[in-house]
């Protein structure tokens, strides 16, 4: 149901048409139907999809696509380029006021994740040596103030509250306090509200007028469907939005709402929340989101993660070894350790193109991190010589390794077989057989 | 920003365009391919999803040509009927057949689980039932406090532990307390969890098993809370939650906004789980039994109320 990869699907659609020689307008339309479906499945608003496909169509009809040897890839390229352009070409940063404090207001529907996002934003600000003040202006939801206080306590960030008073008054008082106590950022957590609730929207405007925020962030759940356009439009009409926070990206939704909201408000997505932990808050990368909406996986984030966990020098050494085909079990162990630093395997798999879908296909099969522990134990039970040249591992050595690592001989056999296969694969990589497999990357 | 501006403008202008056009086509009493396309768009706009929308419109086409229906109004009625068939179930609400009846409430983050429990407590208290709430969300900051306030409002009892406690233990205690105090209903809150986090889904399975151990046959109801603003991801949510623990019903929340929650059509169609309640506000009375007739009428109404 969910598109494993739009790229693959398009390739398939267009390949069937190859025999005809030149592609026609009609062929392009067939391909664009796939694009339309894919975007709709990703929850992009249908009107946005319509306009978008129209623009892509114009570009596709240009000679570069029609006469290309790989029209499928060309179509994907045009789609992803346009999508990235629409998402905003570069990463947008948080506005900053020359005279502190910078006032940030978080707004959005109920349950979109305002309070959590406010705390996460404060946490990254604190990390980069700022002194943020969180303001509890959600006076309606039971225990909302308490929630912010608990989060503030956890993070060691001051929380300002005046109980159930008028939110505008709370905000003004908070800024006064911030000036005195030298907080350079004030983050106001407002109550969740429906965009059609006149009273609450007026209240929001009162807060806005009272404190003139430098940044008003609309918090949007990445799982939002078609209604995202209505929500964003009304919020934008009533108050002046300056940016968007996209939350719950650690789910498996494709997040098409990001595109809808961007189209309606013109505001850039500034942050992406992906997890319950306060550190799971990142700057937003438009090109990655474009790839995710298209169902092509979040390869760039994966690369980033790898880079963050990887030791650059070691990586260079590894690359050399790979190229010279001297990859040993010793190196393999090293890799495993690096991999473990990157977080749970499931998380990594989800980020790989096509893999998100694969997980669904292999219902219930999850990658088990414990499997890695086992492999680690096996390799650690080998002598140095065995690790360097696994061919010497005969049956008696296997028995010894199994005993040492608390596994079965079978496990050793499996590992060695897998390792052998891996070496073969690496040889092919070395010869460049798989070059150009991901033309977009 | 050319393309972006264009789309933004287009959206502003055509806020209700679809209904207008459909209305136009309806009154002109003519229908053709364009009419079906508009109907499909109407369904898509309500988050029904491509697959379900195409199937519904396809069926409509078939029936229309078989019955030789030419009238646009009759066609819309026929489509409403098709949707009604999917959404009508014999069992609605929660039957308190056993004492205590244990209800487990689940869902992803921010859909309104705690609020739904508060309202359910109010509903059953007003019917004179003795209700105990189990504060099973021991993870989110101040979740128990939130439930406690709801318990106060609904005049229900609450069983809670320290933050970070084992949710299964809280629920076990609540059920045991309910048996001792002769309560009619135990409403169990759980922490919001994304369905793609297998450790959290495992935790859910454990909660289910422990509830069963505390009282054979429990939980009698397992309600999945879906947010009406959620798009296609709700299908994945329902599917995976249902795989983890057998669901008995859906609560559709936040229906007082402009979102139509059409995704429940796709969800009930695939999983055969009835929608039991809808949430339409933040007050204690803002939870109603699901009325398919009303829902379908709303589906075809003006998007901005």
Ranges of chain A where pLDDT stays below 50 over 5 or more residues in a row are 353-365, 432-441
Order of helices and strands of chain B: HHHHHEHEHEHEHEHEHEEH
Shape of chain B: elongated
- Biggest β-sheet: strands ordered side by side in the sheet of chain A: 3-2-4-1-5-6-7-8
Biggest β-sheet strands, sense, barrel of chain A: 8 strands, mixed
Provide the spatial order of strands within the biggest beta sheet of chain B: 3-2-4-1-5-6-7-8
Structural class of the helices, strands and pairings of chain B? alpha/beta
Low-confidence stretches of chain B: 10-17
What gap, in angstroms, lies between the N and C termini of chain A? 25 Å
What gyration radius of chain A follows from the Cα positions, in whole Å? 26 Å
Q: Report the strand count of chain A.
A: 8
Biggest chain pair interface: A-B, 68 and 64 residues
Largest sheet features of chain B: 8 strands, mixed
Distance between the termini of chain B: 31 Å
Question: By helix and strand content of chain A, what is the structural category?
Answer: alpha/beta
CATH secondary-structure class of the largest domain in chain A:
Alpha Beta
What does this structure look like?
- The complex is a heterodimer of chains A (441) and B (305).
- Chain A has 441 residues and is of the alpha/beta class.
- Chain A has three domains: 4-87, SRP54, nucleotide-binding domain (Four Helix Bundle (Hemerythrin (Met), subunit A)); 102-297, P-loop containing nucleotide triphosphate hydrolases (Rossmann fold), CATH 3.40.50; 303-431, Orthogonal Bundle (434 Repressor (Amino-terminal Domain)).
- Chain A has 21 helices and eight strands.
- Chain A has helices at 6-15, 25-41, 46-60, 63-66, 71-87, 114-127, 144-155, 167-181, 198-211, 228-238, 257-265, 286-293, 299-309, 312-323, 329-341, 345-351, 355-361, 369-380, 384-388, 395-405, 409-431, and strands spanning 102-108, 132-137, 158-160, 185-190, 215-221, 243-247, 269-273, 281-283.
- An eight-stranded mixed sheet of chain A has the order 3-2-4-1-5-6-7-8, with helices on both faces.
- In chain A, helix 10 links the parallel strand 5 and strand 6 (243-247).
- In chain A, helix 15 (329-341) runs antiparallel to helix 18 (369-380).
- By secondary structure, chain B is an alpha/beta fold.
- Chain B has twelve helices and eight strands.
- Chain B has an eight-stranded mixed sheet, with helices on both faces.
- In chain B, helix 11 links the parallel strand 6 (249-253) and strand 7.
- In chain B, helix 2 packs antiparallel against helix 3, helix 4 (50-66) packs across helix 5 and helix 5 (72-87) crosses helix 12 (292-299).
- The two termini of chain B are 31 Å apart.
- In chain B, 50% of the residues are buried.
- Residues 10-17 of chain B have low confidence and may be disordered.
- The interface between A and B is large, with 68 and 64 residues.
